[in-house]
Specification:
4-stranded mixed sheet; globular
Length: about 110
């Protein structure tokens, strides 16, 4: 058994100002998923200072915990627009009606 000091992060993810539904947040003991309003609640070890936000199209964005709150037990992240974060990964490849690959260039977010 290993005890780990945790902090509770909560906030709201947006994409270009709209609620980001279904984004997966990883980096803690258990992942979290944003709800219909983009809201999330996530437990993170106090030893870590960032989490990964995984968008529906597979892009992975790194979200840092504000430095002044990195050891706080409750961290109010506020509204975070993921479109302003640096994200990596490929956009999804969709099959057209003719069976040809086409790349989706925009993220609908919700």
């Amino acid at each position: 058994y290993n005890a780990v000091a945790l902090q509770l992060l909560f906030g709201r993810l947006l994409f270009n100002g709209k609620a980001l539904q279904g984004a997966r947040i990883e980096g803690g003991q258990y992942p979290a998923v944003t709800d219909d309003y983009g809201l999330f609640q996530f437990e993170l070890s106090t030893e870590k200072n960032s989490v990964d936000v995984v968008l529906k199209d597979g892009r992975r964005c790194q979200l840092s915990v504000p430095k002044q709150q990195q050891k706080a037990s409750i961290v109010r992240m506020g509204n975070i627009d993921v479109s302003t974060l640096e994200c990596f990964g490929a956009s999804p490849v969709l099959k057209s009606a003719q069976g040809q690959d086409s790349v989706q260039l925009t993220d609908t977010g919700s």
